[in-house]
């Protein structure tokens, strides 16, 4: 059959290819030119499921306009308004993305107006189909209310410094608070990742002294299994509890979960420190586990603090001559790959060149775990002693003294 | 067709229509009193019932329009196309006589009888309107029924259906889904034996008329003019009179969304000619444009090949006897002979000649070119010898540029017209709104890119590629000599290579797979593919069609060799 004949659909497909090519090469004017010819496919838009012409024109047109005439918001806004009239099914989505664009351009007030207008949109059963978008619109509007509240709060604080009062601003501030609080509270009840919204909401609650509600919110966010696993949720909870002087026990339990989800999280250092101070043996044991686990990750390779934590704990264990088996247990699963990962000759040279303190801490760990004859320790201690650095001599002595430890943990 | 009564005189069922719209028996020429109206009253009574039960009276009072029939629409299209062809230089006879007669014959044979026109008026009115002068003189071209339904209020038309005739009721029921009276019937009735009119078929009509007059326009030329916009096709219904309202199913009939395909138009023409029972067409002689000798000359020029090659094409044409009038002339009744596509044939002949001279096996032609280059160095007296390599470079560059341009133009093609279309009156406002948005957006993006002005239509030209000997860059090969690649043998110049390769050893059967041969570019040498693509571009057809023709020619040329031994051997070329 005549598969090769040129028809409307094929012609527009080709046109779209040219547009996409131009966009990839950032030739925005050329993309705009071909878009002019693509646009008439809107009149043939009978699509229901797949990405039809109206969505293509909306998304690509947005990109092109954005790049072609960035400063001309009027053009852009008029384009978006036309897109909104094209199809009812994407109305709210377009409103939302329009608001994002405005925000990216610093036009917060306009964004607010748009979201506010969109909130009052109703269209038969479309209102229920587009429920998700509506909720997002309300949430972002709430976020902007928070932003306004924050601005007003800062103004008042400034006034406060000079002993000035302004009831109208205060009134506005409370209004913003109310509007924000309602929307934010609603959105964070839906399972999802709402980091920014949660933080803002908690900020509001804390300001007005509702700590109980804040704690409740954060706990829900972190522990409700319906919500996706989110390390940040635990971090927020931890920070909140710390702010409010909660006992170490609760802090540790929060961080324990964080350690389970993200062993390489930066808070692991704090966590380790807390665990080390504990009198309980189990906690100290956990501490060793935590610090070893953190150093499993490439991002921690050159973290002096982490190495010094590990070095200190190892030293403590050796000197106390108790719990050597802890080290053995932790080292068991790592002895095959840590040498190449952390203690190669190349790294020895590099660490020495770039960061002596790092080299020092690592050398101690290497000396104990791999013995005084391992390349890392030998190189660093040699270099350090050559430079007549006292602490390296001490280090050398220490490792030599405790060299039998290596034999015990490596059996 | 509906009339199945036996003739009272001869008992045959073989009816025709008189000019007066009465039925007459073709066998014994007995004229009856029956008219078409009576025959199709069954149709009307049904529709009347339909109308009443549906209670359809939705047409707005302000929406005035004529009643019109689909064939009228096509008639209008044909008229426009004929006018355009005349503007391109075709003789006026085509429009006034030939096309007219073909169309009239078609209407009669296909008995466009869904209307119930009162006796005596129908065909006469039709023939009046066909002649162009009539149409020209009346700016407001009356529809068939307007003439019949002249009421007191001039120009006040049909919507209220105050006409006594049943015609009004027919229009009402069908006007819901189409502006034309019989638009919906057009799709419903399965017309076997009848050739249903379509937009591509208008071009078949045109080409048939051109062929009858042996005009200097091939089918590929015609189709190219259509694509370039010189002949109305896409959106031609925009030129319909204001009162001929188009919507619903009419759009499916008249609103085209694809370019006409050569094979489709050609095949329809064959059917049409057979349907109209046309006699043998005027002979194609060697002084006609369509004769391979002449067309080859044109294509050689356009392909920038040496004029000397023309001798060779003529020799091939003569040898396989495709220059004879009996072979070339179109005889519709003769279903067994393979019909000639003049443009494809000429192109294929050139390809065969190139194969003969250059072999085109991705090896020999380059060797030959190198040797010609060598000879050219010592060549002082004669004109330059033709070097395949040089020609290839020049053509490839041009072809790539033209192809790229054409691809972009295709991508930039605007299909929609200014007149907003809608499938129903309900959706009309939505369509209008959308159109407004489209226009706004086009302006907006047009301003951004600076391309608000629509591309200008190129002037119609029968040549797409132009090569001038005045160019000093040596990019014109017309005057080049073939001496560089030929050798003298017994006082005649012959080809140097004794070999030839056949495109295919066995031809397919057209009856089974529709083609004599199938083309897959991977299976053939690149040089051969290049040459095919060159002509494919010039004729705007798929390379496969030319390849098919090449195969057919080769089989004729090497007929003896092929049917003596199944394997091919190097033939002795004369």
From TrEMBL, chain A:
GO cellular component: RNA polymerase I transcription regulator complex
Protein name: TAF1A polymerase
Database matches in InterPro entries: SL1/TIF-IB_Component, TAF1A, TPR-like_helical_dom_sf
Alphabetical list of Pfam families matching this protein: TAF1_subA
Single GO biological process annotation from the record: transcription by RNA polymerase I
Lineage, opening ranks: Eukaryota, Metazoa, Chordata, Craniata, Vertebrata
UniProtKB/TrEMBL annotation, chain B:
Chief location of this protein within or outside the cell: nucleus
Compartment(s) where it occurs, according to its Swiss-Prot or TrEMBL record: Nucleus, Nucleolus
UniProt keyword annotations, A-Z: DNA-binding, Metal-binding, Nucleus, Transcription, Transcription regulation, Zinc, Zinc-finger
RRN7-type domain residues: 2-33
Domain named Rrn7/TAF1B C-terminal cyclin: residues: 258-448
Gene Ontology CC terms, in alphabetical order: RNA polymerase I core factor complex; RNA polymerase transcription factor SL1 complex
Start and end residues of each Rrn7/TAF1B N-terminal cyclin domain: 74-241
GO molecular-function terms, A-Z: RNA polymerase I core promoter sequence-specific DNA binding; zinc ion binding
Gene Ontology biological process: nucleolar large rRNA transcription by RNA polymerase I
Family: Belongs to the RRN7/TAF1B family.
The protein's name: TATA box-binding protein-associated factor RNA polymerase I subunit B
Organism, as annotated: Eudromia elegans (Elegant crested-tinamou)
